[in-house]
Amino acid sequence: MSESDLLVRPDDSATPTRALPSNIEAEAAFLGAVLIDNRVLEELRTPLRAEHFFEPLHQRIFERILTLVDRNATASPVTLKPYFESDEALRQLGGTTYLAQLTADGQGLLATGELAEQIYDLALLRELVSVGRGLVEGALDTSEAVAPMDKIALAEADLFRVAEGATSGSEAIGFKDAALTAIKMAEAAMNSGGGLSGKTTGLDSIDQKTAGLHNSDLVILAGRPGMGKTSLATNIAFNCAEEHLNWQKDGGEFNYGAPVAFFSLEMSADQLATRILAEQAEISSESLRMGKLTREEFQKLSFASQRLAELPLYIDDTPALTIAGLRTRARRLKRRHDIGMIVVDYLQLLQGSGRANDNRVNEISEISRGLKTLAKELGVPVIALSQLSRAVEQREDKRPMLSDLRESGSIEQDADMVWFIFRADYYHEALRPDVATETSSADVQEKYRIWEERYLELRNKATLIVAKQRHGSTGNVPLHFQAEITKFTSPNMKDYSEYGYE
To answer: Is residue 405 within 8 Å of residue 222, measured between CB atoms?
Structure first.
């Protein structure tokens, strides 16, 4: 009987004719190599953890080795002995002498990288078997509900975790690792010269207020119709994708951009592409749609289309998506294109699972929680556009507030940041005095002069109201809006006073 036959293995009675993928000899050889030379762990490229070992005893040995090494102590058969003297599985193999047997021949030192990679790959295969079993059992179980799409979504989520190497779900992260991540973010912000530690929006005034868009954040961008929500979202999506493209070409230590997935539930992909082309070519989108272009404008359009051809911006215009369907598609884009930002236009057009459809507030709550879960699961910022209630129109002051978020307070609760886009010129336009006739009285003419003077002050000026921000302060951010090409830009710092921000 071989040494591996003596080891206690996990129960795989569910598949009596086929053993789970494993190589216990490779595990023993690798552990022996580590016990001979602890520096083997420093050179590993494979993210090996204790749970990747098939044999429970090997899991405990590797976990203890990691603990000792982390304390800057030497891990050897001698130093491990006190921890395993009462281990029942080890006793069946002859006691602590088994630890010395692991280092007997030292053959594992010849191929430690290959051994670690094989252990890791076999662990992923076992997890894949587990996902398959769960999928079969779930498909056969119709005791509660027949919901195949829900089961497919769950299976795809499990497969995504396997692809990411998370063989046992999300693990607790030590404070040391979390602190190192925070330090890297601070370093990125310092090196950016503008306090940018997350993904860039391409708009300096917003980046300075928020330090960029951070991974796992849910950002709600809300506003009344006509304020420019979609325009701002497409601007940010383009800017982030272009920054990533420039980083690929020029290099650099930090990448402040990312490939972007844009889920457009309201506009078709070609409409969205037309808008982005118009923005970048600086041509009126209305002229572009109607074909009223000069030769010079058409040349600018051609140059813009060539520049955008390589842009890592992926548009999904599937209508009436459920939140589960959106998460499934986002995972697929993450695997295929490694997307680093998601934009959803807009939240109220998503559908829930169907269980809460009788209550719209509950359904919106389910959707907002699903978007936050997606942001954490994929580790990317998610920008979700949202409508505001008509309560804004009933007030004299048209500036939105958190209470105006439509249909559910859970949107505010789940969001890491809530932005409102506000353009005073939009509402001032509605107050235009009627001077259509030449016989208008002097009083009407004077009213129009005052109105026009104020309109010229407000024209092309927008405000991004940061109403909630977990990472920093709230407040107003000035923006410049070119309505004819639906493009937002940051005003120069010297011009901030004109926006009312001293």
So the answer is: yes
DSSP SS3 for 322 = strand
- Give the percent of the chain with pLDDT over 90: 5
The answer to whether 98 and 7 are in contact (CB under 8 A) is: no
Residue pair 443/465 in contact by the 8 Å Cβ criterion:
no
Which one-letter DSSP state was computed for residue 388? B
Q: Classify residue 213 by its DSSP letter.
A: B
Instruction: Report CA-CA distances (Å) from 2 to 7, 24, 93, 261, 420.
Output: 9, 11, 11, 53, 69
Q: Mean per-residue pLDDT for 186-193?
A: 56
Q: Give me the amino acid identity at 436.
A: A
Q: Side by side, which strands form the sheet with 461-469?
A: 313-316, 260-264, 341-345, 382-387, 218-223, 417-422, 461-469, 475-482, 487-489
Which tokens is 158 given?
Answer: 């499990």
> Cα–Cα distance between 68 and 71 in angstroms, integer?
5
Q: 501 preceded by cis ω (within 30°)?
A: no
Q: How far apart are CA 245 and CA 312, in angstroms?
A: 7
Give residue-wise pLDDT tens across range 378-421. Answer: 889 999 998 887 877 777 777 888 887 766 667 878 888 999 88
Do 204 and 488 touch, CB atoms closer than 8 A?
A: no
Question: Which residue shows structure tokens 């004819």?
Answer: 484
- In this structure, the number of other CB atoms found within 10 A of the CB of residue 197 comes to 23
Tokens of 479: 């923006």
User: 99 by DSSP, 3-state: which?
Assistant: helix
**285: which 2 tokens?**
């989108």
Of 70, 200, 61, the C-alpha closest to 119 is 61
Burial of 500 (0-12, 13-18, 19+ CB in 10 A): exposed
Q: How confident is the model at residue 221, as a pLDDT?
A: 92
Evaluate if residue 437 carries a pLDDT over 60: no
Q: What is the pTM of this model?
A: 0.63
Residue 385's H or E segment, with its range, is strand 382-387
Instruction: Find how far residue 247's CA is from the centre of its chain.
Output: 19
Give the integer Cα–Cα distance in Å for 308 and 242: 8
343-356 residue pLDDT tens:
998 788 888 766 54
Name the DSSP class of 364.
H
37 or 94, greater pLDDT: 37
Q: What is the pLDDT of residues 276-322, one digit of tens each?
A: 887 887 777 777 777 777 788 788 778 878 877 788 888 888 887 88
Tell me, what DSSP letter sits at residue 398? -
Written as six digits, the tokens of 369 are 């929680």
Structure tokens at 344: 């959803």
Specify the residue for token string 């009126």: 284
Q: What's the CA gap between 459 and 483, in Å, rounded?
A: 9
Q: Concatenated DSSP letters for 144-209?
A: S---HHHHHHHHHHHHHHHHTT-BTBPPPPPHHHHHHHHHHHHHHHHHHSS---SB--S-HHHHHH
**What backbone phi and psi angles, to 5 degrees, belong to 166?**
-85, 80
